[in-house]
Design brief:
The complex is a heterodimer of chains A (114) and B (113). By secondary structure, chain A is an all-beta fold. In chain A, 0% of the residues lie in helices and 54% in strands. Chain A is built from no helices and eleven strands. In chain A, the strands form two sheets. In chain A, strands 2, 4, 5, 6, 9, 10 and 11 form a seven-stranded mixed beta sheet that branches. A four-stranded antiparallel beta sheet of chain A has the order 1-3-8-7, with no helix packed on it. Chain B is built from no helices and eleven strands. By secondary structure, chain B is mainly β. In chain B, the strands form two sheets. In chain B, strands 2, 4, 5, 9, 10 and 11 form a six-stranded mixed beta sheet that branches. In chain B, strands 1-3-8-7-6 form a five-stranded antiparallel beta sheet, with no helix packed on it. In chain B, strand 7 and strand 8 form a beta hairpin. The chains are: A mainly beta (114), B mainly beta (113). Chains A and B meet through strand 5 and strand 10 of A and strand 5 of B.
Chain lengths: 114, 113
């Protein structure tokens, strides 16, 4: 398997623009997670899905952030409008289950909002 | 709520020396504990995990960790550091809060030649 695939790897945009990050999980994994990593706040869970259904979005910072999973092989994280404080590395991860199952991380998308 | 504290944001060792990265957890339920490693410009990958079986857990690349309930600790060790071990290491806990992984702040390991 190719592992978790994320695109783009790097994104530079201007404040106020819409940003869409994409993720393809490992085939057969029922769980998909979106994380954000910054120097100040470390690694934060934003939202996770089970069988394409959002289960916990309590980590989504505000209404500017939205995530969807239209099918088992694709998910998006959208920021609209983007702000400089959204600059971070965004990771997608997938796993077979929760609690004891290994989460497999993608390479991340480095977002810079000018 | 569960939490993880990693003592020391940066650890530096010489090549061939013992590696010890400290992790303490807080949990009101039996925890599941993980160590992940992140190499520069990459995602995290699992080193090892404790899921209530043997308390001494062996992982990849010669790393191991011991679950000590009395000390609420899950320290990561490796007898002899290699240059390729230079990376950031994250301790994480789950078992509560809907099964989500809660990560520590990370410890950056540097290995000097």
């Amino acid at each position: 398997d190719a592992g978790v695939i994320q695109s783009p790897r790097h994104e530079v945009t201007e404040m106020g623009q819409e940003v869409t990050l994409r993720c393809k999980p490992i085939s057969g994994h029922d769980y998909l997670f979106w994380y954000r990593q910054t120097m100040m706040r470390g690694l934060e869970l934003l939202i996770y899905f089970n069988n394409n259904v959002p289960i916990d979005d309590s980590g989504m910072p505000e209404d500017r952030f939205s995530a969807k999973m239209p099918n088992a092989s694709f998910s998006t994280l959208k920021i609209q409008p983007s702000e400089p404080r959204d600059s971070a590395v965004y990771f997608c991860a997938s796993s077979l289950g929760l609690e004891t199952d290994t989460q497999y991380f993608g390479p991340g998308t480095r977002l810079t909002v000018l | 709520a569960q939490s993880v504290t990693q003592l020391g944001s940066h650890v530096s060792v010489s090549e061939g020396a013992l590696v010890l990265l400290r992790c303490n957890y807080s949990s009101s339920v039996p925890p599941y504990l993980f160590w992940y490693v992140q190499y520069p410009n990459q995602g995290l990958q699992l080193l090892l995990k404790y899921t209530s079986a043997a308390t001494l857990v062996k992982g990849i690349n010669g790393f191991e960790a011991e679950f000590k309930k009395s000390e609420t600790s899950f320290h990561l060790t490796k007898p002899s550091a290699h240059m390729s071990d230079a990376a950031e290491y994250f301790c994480a806990v789950s078992g509560d809060q809907g099964g989500k992984l809660i990560f520590g702040q990370g410890t950056e390991l540097s290995v000097k030649p």
